[in-house]
Amino acid sequence: MQELMGLTSTAPALLAYLDPGTGSLVFQVVIAGMMSGAFFVRSWTRTAREFLGRLPRHG
Amino acid sequence: MVERTRLGASFRDPSGFVFRRDGRLYRQVNLFHADDYDRLMASGLYETLTRQGLLVPHVEVVEDPADPTCAYKVLRPESVGFISYPYEWCFGQLRDAALLTLAVQRRALELGQTLKDASAYNVQFSRGKPIFIDTLSFEEYREGEPWVAYQQFCRHFLAPLALMSKTDVRLGRLSCSHLDGVPLDLASKLLPMRSRLSPALLLHIHFHSRSQSKHSGNPPKVDVSEPQPSRQGRFSRRAMLGLIESLEGAVSALEWEPKGTEWADYYDGNNTYSDKALETKSRIIAGYIDRVKPSSVWDLGANNGRFSRIASDRGVPTVAFDIDPACVEANYRLVKKRAETQILPLCVDLFNPSPAIGWRNRERESLEERGPADLVMALALIHHLTIGGSLPVEMVADFFANLGRWLIVEFVPPDDPQARRLRAARTATHGDLDRERFERAFAVHFRVDQREPVGDDGRALYLLQRGDV
Lengths: 59, 469
Hints:
The structure holds two protein chains of two kinds. Chain A is mostly helical.
């Protein structure tokens, strides 16, 4: 994780009245892939479950 | 000219502010926020959130703005009743407030908007449920940008919840000394090693805190004069949704069970009162409430709200205060189970009631500033204050007179087993509180309206009316 954090040295520029915290912005960019991947997997699992739930049951 | 009715808590966000006029609350929307406000109203987000009970409804009114130099519109929000603060909430209340904030953010994203702040002070409890009160927290969502309120969410919600769940529930009070939430480095230090076994806490608290330390010297690149270029792909929409889902999972996984404290099982495991005495006490209190017909009740030392419900079941807005987080948690769970709308359980230490805090001590009001209530109840409490807390009864009477117009107070005689138990550990007290001294102390502020014995052991209930009412 430390290596990952080192990859991004600059924070995205944002307009905010609240100080979003440089470290917090950088951190989100660092974990973006992880968050995105986890969301994709969970969405896919939900869709698969719904599909399986709609299948007629035999026996 | 800016009127002095502007509330002390409402100044940070340049989008607008809340002001009071003729006893009514209004929210001024500033020109600065006009586009964002119009988007909220036109996109269907306002309608969705208010229909689902997630956002406080308002009406636009023709009313002079408090600061005409920058005014766009004036709104009159629906009243949410008693204003409470995160450091007064039990674990379950803070968790529900956190989940509400994330639910609001999720719906905002669906309609092209995002929360620009995630302060726990943007949530209040109204009609038994948390509700988002800041109508001006919404702005346009620009894909590619991280969530500006991520840090604030972690500090205001996730860190205190994790500390309450994994370290000690009393750490919820840290939010009182840290107005903008618990610093993540502090939370990371205070959390036990095993908290790192939770991937969500490892990520959102421990690693997040480390990232903050690493970049603490680098200010964010903010250029308010130039429009920001799109940063498509840096923090995609899917990443944002993943972040919200991850935070929801982290918050939902945190638990705390209300047990093992001194007062949590008071009515179940205690034999101070027989069933008959409890019944008598309830009947007398009901009679007093029916006589006063109060518009609001504060029950001090309410335990799990057994007697508070005599008022709230009659439709009277009732705040049930207790020092014990387990009692407040048990009370809140009962509120949810019974879908009650008129009772609000809160954690308050009467020996150190919530102070006025923040900028010039005006941002968050003290407990007394949020009063007075129409009726205050102090049942089986006086001996804890006078013996347990070494307070002279005269000071207790003075305190109660500041809190309410009417008072139901239970007299506990000096030879009562509970009073004796409290006195046993003390070498010096302010003297025995006999009935004569008790009545003399309260007569300074109140007149006796009714008095009835609770049983045959000397305990008695008084209905008192403040002399100046």
